[in-house]
Amino acid sequence: MKMSRALLAFAAATALTCSAALPAAADTWTRGFVVSAYEYAFRYGGRPDFTRGGEIEPGVDCPRGSTTHFANPDQTRIALARQKWRSQQDIDWIAAPPGLDQVRDPGQVRRYIWRRALAYRGYKRGIETYTNPWAADDPGQPQVTSRIADGLNLDGNVGPNDFVSPGGEKGVDNALYRAWGCDAPWRGNGNAPYALAVRDSMLFGLYTMVLRVSGNQDPMNDSDATVEIGYSPDKIVRDSRGGIAADYSYRILKSTQYTKLKAKITNGAVETEHVEHLHMPRIAYVYHMTGDMDLTKGKMRLDIAHDGLSGTGLIGGYKNWRDLYAEAAFVNDGGGLDVTRYEDHVALYFALRRNADGMYNEMTGQYDGISTAFRIKMSSAFVVDPDKPMEIPIVAGEQWRMKGTEANKAAFIKGAKTRIPQNPPPGVSQTAAFPTLERAMKDLPSRDFFLTLDRPHWPDGVGVDTYGNPIDDDGDRIDSRGNKLDERGNPLTPPQPQHQVSNGAPATVATGQER
Amino acid sequence: MKRSIATGVALVALCALAGISLAADPTATPALTPAPAKPAQASSDNLPLVPPAKPGVFTATKMGSDQFHLVVAGHKFTTQSDIEKYLTYRAAELTMEQKASWFTFVESRTKADTAPVPQRDPAGLRYSFRMEYFRPVWRYKTSSSPVWKSWSPFAGAAFITDGPKIITDFEVSADIVLHKGQMDDVNPLAFEAGAVSDLLINQVSPPE
User: Fold this and answer.
1) How far is CA A411 from the centre of its chain?
2) Which of B2, B121, B127 should be substituted to probe chain A, the one whose Cβ sees the most A Cβ atoms within 10 Å?
3) Given an 8 Å threshold on Cβ–Cβ distance, is A260 in contact with B5?
4) In angstroms, rounded to a whole number, what is the distance separating the alpha carbons of residues A433 and A424?
5) Quick one: A89 exposed, middle or buried, by C-beta within 10 A (0-12, 13-18, 19+)?
6) What would the pLDDT profile of A238-280 be if each residue is shown by its tens digit?
7) Are the C-beta atoms of residues B147 and B141 closer than 8 Å to each other?
8) Is the pTM of this model over 0.80?
9) Backbone phi, then psi, for A119, in 5-degree steps?
C-alpha cells in the first residue's frame, strides 16, 4: 500500500511538472474508442417488442414485412417459373423434391436442391446467376416505403427522394436503406440476424475497428478536432458479462483501412468533413468478407457521452454498388444465404442498380454508387500507434477462400461490364451447392433427376470442397495424383477379395488325422 | 521503493510523450486510395453483341420532348417473343443514347379493349422492369391479301392466327416516354434501360 501511494504521489508530481514544462500540450486532448456494434443504418419500423417470431413483421418501413424469397415451396416455384426454359415438371420437382421424407435430413437436402436450381436463373440454361445476375429476369424486391431514415446528407441537397431523419433533418441520403431495408436478415429492432452476427464476430476477434478523436481545445467543444478511424490488430477485450471491457489499449494501423478527417465538436457532437474516400474496416461476419469499406464522399457524425466512456455514430458515404453486391452475395455462392435467410441476391442486384444515386459515371451516364450509412456504438479505449508500422494481419488458412471470393467478384464485374456471361471461377466453395448436394442426397429416390440440373464443371483437382480440398468433377475429394480420397482425406483402399469363412474344422485335415 | 519510483517515472514520461505525439502526429498520412478491382479486358469483350439492323428495320420518331414512336419492321416472321424482345432492346438502347435512364411504355388502348390495366402497388415488390408489360401493337400482311391487318395485345384476342408462314410483312410499334433520375419502380410500365439492355443483349437480333 505504501509503495502504491508513493508511486501515485510521484506520478502526480511528475505529471504536474511535465504540464508546466510543456504549456503547448496542456490543452491537447485525445479520446479513443473501440467499436462494439457496427451495422447498416436501417431504421426498423415494426413493433418495438418484435421478437422475430414470424420473421415478416410488417412496419412503417416495410408494409408487407421482411423479404420472403424462398421461404416456402410456393415462393421457390415463383422464382423458378421466371425461367421460360424450365418445364413445369422440373419446377414442381425442384420445389417439392419427390421422396424427400426418405433422406436423413430432408430440410437440408431441400435447401441444397433449391440452392443448385436457383444458382441458374439466366435467360438460358448454363448461366450461373450469382456471378451473372444481370443476365436474369429481375425477381423483384420489397423496398422501404417510409420517408424517415437514419443517415447523413451526403450531397448537401434536399432531393425529392431523400429521407428525413428521426430528428427532422431533411436531405438524408440513404438509398441503400430503401433498396435493402426490408431484407429479412438485416431487418430488426436491434436483433437482425446479420447485425448480431457482425457484432459477435467483432467481439470474438474477427476484426476490430477503433476511432481516435483528438483536439487542442476541449473534448466537448472543439472547432479544430481530428477523427481517425481504422483497423486494429488487437482483439476486443470483453468483460465478465461479455460486454466490452473499458479502457484497454488498441493499436490503430494506418493501413488501407484507415482515414483521418478534420472535425468540429459542439456539445459532444462530432461532425467531420467530407473526404473523397473514407477507408475503414468493412462490415463482416466471416473472414473472407473483411477488407476496406471505401466510401466515396464519406463523413461521420459521432455523439460522445459527457463522461467520454461511450458513444454512438453514423458513418455515411457512397458505396460502389457493384462492390457491395459482390461483398454481400459472395459470402459463399449467394444461394446459401438466400435459401436459409429468405433473401434474394439477384433481386438485391437490381434494387441496388435501380436505387443508385451517387458516383455519376460520365462514360456510362449511370450512377456507380449508392448512398449508404452505418450505425456504430463505441466504448472508451486507449487507441495508440503501433511501435512500428505494420500491415493488417492475414489468416493464412482462409486465403484460399478469400482468393475465391475475389475471383468471383472479378468475374462478376467483368460479366456486368462486357455483358458476356462468365463461368464461376474455381476455388469458390459451394457454388450451386456443389459438391455438397451430391453427398447429401445419396438416399434420395429422385437423386438422378437432380444430378441433371445445371452446375459448374471444372477439371479434376481445380474445384474445391467446403474446406478447400481439391475435388474431381464428380465432387469426390482427390489427391495430387487424381486418386480418390474419402471425405477425411484418407486413400480409398481397393476392394479386398472375400475370404472363405467356416466355423467347422477343415474336412480334409480331419479325415487325415483320423487315418 | 526505488523500482516503483522508476516505473512511475517511466509511465508518466511515456504518457506525456504519447500525449504530445498524438496531438501533433507528424506521421499521420492522408487516406490511402486503394486500387479498385479492375476486370481483365480482352479485345473480344468489346465486340457488338447484337448485329446491326438493315435500313428500315428500326425507326424511332420523336413525338414530343421525351416521347418516341418506335417501329420494328420485317418480312420474315420468326416468333412474337423474338421480335418484341428486339423492339424492347431498341427502346432501352434509345433511352441510353438520349442520356436518359428509364422509360415508360405507353399502352395503346381503345375503349373496346378488355385486357386488365396493370395497377400500381406501392407496398408490393419493386422491379427494374416487368417484361410482360411491354406489349406493342402489331400490323401485318399475309400472302393471301395485300391489306394490312392489326393485332392489339389489349383486345383480348389470341395472337395472329393466320399462321406465321403466310406473313409477308409486319410492323411492331410502341410509344415510350424517356425519363432521367430516380426510376418510378411502382409503375408497372416503367423499365430501367440498363437492366433491360443487359438482359436482352445476348438474346436478340434484328428481324429480316
Assistant:
1) 19
2) B127
3) no
4) 13
5) exposed
6) 999 888 999 999 999 999 999 999 999 999 999 999 999 999 9
7) yes
8) yes
9) -75, -5
